[in-house]
Specification:
The protein has 5 helices and 7 strands, in the order βββαβαβαββαα. By secondary structure, it is an alpha/beta fold. It binds zinc ion.
């Protein structure tokens, strides 16, 4: 039996890359977050655990980059800047979700993550690509962009609504 969705909606404040306005961005929402001032898509970098992974990552309309990491994992820290860069450079096309495997062993087990860092690109909850081990930001970006081409969302692009 699945648990009911948690009503607690976390959010974070993200500065618009275009106009600098600070926007509150929820961890889960329909569509993509946009700047309240200039409508530019905002970087979407959040985190999830066993309880809310399905809501945050599985139900997202845009492809999701999942970063399976842990605090004690040195190589994971090498990956983090690339994940942040991907969230910015691919704002509106990608949602980045960091998962601490120590706090979310269920998510790690679901994807069979034997080692970390493990990076996944999900399309509506379906895994389309996987990268195991740390890679430099440039390489990570190229991997993500090629993974996005395998997703259904890439051909349609963002639509208003
Ligand atoms: Zn703006």
């Amino acid at each position: 039996m699945t648990t009911s969705a948690t009503s607690v909606q976390r959010s974070s404040v993200v500065a618009c890359l275009n106009c600098g306005r600070r926007n509150r961005v929820p961890v889960a929402a329909e569509g993509i977050p946009r700047c309240g001032s200039c409508q530019t898509p905002l970087p979407w970098l959040t985190d999830a655990g066993d309880d809310d992974f399905d809501v945050v990552a599985g139900a997202a309309d845009v492809p999701v980059l999942v970063d399976l990491w842990a605090t004690w994992c040195g190589p994971c820290r090498m990956v983090a800047p690339g994940v942040e860069r991907a969230a910015k450079e691919l704002a509106g096309r990608l949602k980045a979700v960091k998962v601490d495997v120590d706090k979310a062993p269920g998510v790690a087990a679901r994807f069979g993550a034997q080692s970390i860092p493990t990076l996944l690109v999900l399309d509506h909850g379906r895994e389309v690509s996987r990268q195991i081990g740390a890679v430099p930001p440039d390489q990570l970006l190229r991997w993500i962009e090629s993974a996005l081409e395998k997703t259904t969302a890439s051909s349609t692009g963002p639509t208003g609504g």
